[in-house]
Amino acid sequence: MSLDFQPVIDRVSYRYPSFLFDSVTVHESGRRLVAAKNVTVGEDYFQGHFPGSPLMPAVLIIEALTQAAALLVLEPHASPTARVSLRGVNHAKFRRPVVPGNRLRLEVTLGRARSSLAKVNAVAYVDDQVATEAEILLAIAPGATYIDPSAHVHPSARIGEGTVIGPHCVIGADVTLGRRCRIGASVVIDGWTEIGDDTQLYPMGSIGLAPQDLKYKGERTKLTIGRRNIFREFVTINRGTIGGGGETRIGDNNLFMAYVHVAHDCHIGNDTIFGPDDTLGGHVEVGDFANVSAGSAVHQFCRVGPHGFIGGYSVVTKDALPFSRTIGSRPARIFGVNTIGLARRGFTSDTIAQLRQAFRYLVQSKLNTTRALTQIEHDDSLSAPEVRYLVDFIRASRRGVILRRPLRRAEEHVLDE
Question: Does residue 14 carry a pLDDT above 80?
Fold first, then answer.
């Protein structure tokens, strides 16, 4: 074939004894694949189908499309034990016959996909005319766990089905990895660490090692990581300390870009994003859907509220408010409501308007924080649960919250962005 798919070809499960196309001409990983088949009269299925008027059987056109779809679906799966098989064919239409001498172009595009099932839109062309189109449903079996021969995995480690451990990895005795995890080259996972299903760790990560705290004396403390997280290159995550509750905890669906450091006893929610080179000190709490941009640092014992946005290269030394934009370095300043982020996540215009009014009381009025909170609580127009959460977040703060207004020039610069 024109593109090197031989390692993937070996994992395709199909009923016909050989591949029904000659080459792969276009490949967009995880999105689209185009294959080609020169239909010749020497194909064995033309003998008797039909005498004097040979036609390529419709079932074999579907088989060819299924094989192309299988390559597209399997290629991103790192496990050499993963397999794919045909689960169903929907809305098949046969527009024109395929005969000897035709060049068949097979185009498959990935639709909805889950860990165990994928829908693929498939079209076969002769010249520029549609010959066959269908929706193909493929079942994906992750297969057995695969461990690269150069990796060092302790016999006591628990590895989930379909997980792939890359070359030169080190997995400690008390590590538990969920199903279908992908562990890149030279990752070290140690300590009492539990990682949920479908999590990806890119090369050179350091996960679950001892906390960088001089008071730590080897006690049994934990790192617990949820499902579907992505840790890019050189991410470091430390487990907890006894003084901090004994656990570093990370939720589901989080993205940690390259060189992020999460110190001991941090608690991170779900659906957060951390930019490259971010650093979280010990005991930091980060709420759901928070976004911490590149190069930022959060001081120990601080909180970043849910749906909060921290601008690039900021230094957070007090609690960063939920639903807000916090930007700047010593001191960081509050730039109002995170309007774009909230709108993207489906917050209503009324809720956003109420949050804006609450922030006016907090930041733009001449009231001190206590009086501003009282004014918010007594304003009948501010009834949204998010406003109540904002008030409670401020009242619960131990380090204080960031409420400093931006300088005029800084505010204009951010608005221009």
Answer: no
* pLDDT band, very low/low/confident/very high, at 16 (cuts 50, 70, 90): very low
Print burial letters for 175-203: b (CB count within 10 Å at least 16), e (below 16): bbbbbbbbbbebbbbbbbbbbbbbbbbbb
Among 346, 326, 348, residue whose Cα is nearest residue 337? 326
Nearest to 33 by CA among 103, 81, 105: 105
* Burial class of residue 350, CB neighbours in 10 A (0-12, 13-18, 19+): exposed
CB-CB contact of 312 with 275 (8 Å) = yes
Residue 378's SS3 state is helix
Answer for the pair 159, 178: CB distance below 8 angstroms, yes or no: no
DSSP string, 163-177: -EE-TT-EE-TTEEE
The DSSP secondary structure of 249-287, one letter per residue, reads EE-SS-EE-TT-EE-TT-EE-SS-EE-TT-EE-TT-EE-
Torsion of CA 256, 257, 262, 267, to 10 degrees: -20
Distant-in-sequence, close-in-space partners of 312: CB < 8 Å, separation ≥ 6: 275, 293, 294, 295, 296, 327
Distance of CA 336 to the CA centre of its chain: 28
Nearest CA to 62 out of 15, 28, 99 is that of 15
pLDDT mean across residues, the chain: 90
- Longest alpha-carbon distance in the chain: 93
Which residues are marked as active site? 264-265, 282
pLDDT, residue 416, reads: 40
pLDDT over threshold 50, residue 280: yes
Q: Which of 70-84, 127-141, 256-270 has the lowest mean pLDDT?
A: 70-84
The amino acid that residue 154 corresponds to is H
- Residue 68's H or E segment, with its range, is helix 58-74
Altogether, the residues listed in the chain come to a count of 417
* Integer Rg of the chain from CA: 28
**Residue 317: both structure tokens together:** 């030394």
Name the residue with higher pLDDT: 346 or 78: 346
- Cα separation, 264 vs 239, in Å, equals 5
Euclidean distance between CA atoms 264 and 240, whole angstroms: 4
What does the block give as tokens for 81?
A: 């034990």
Checking if the pLDDT of 2 tops 60, the result is no
Q: For residue 180, what pLDDT is reported?
A: 87
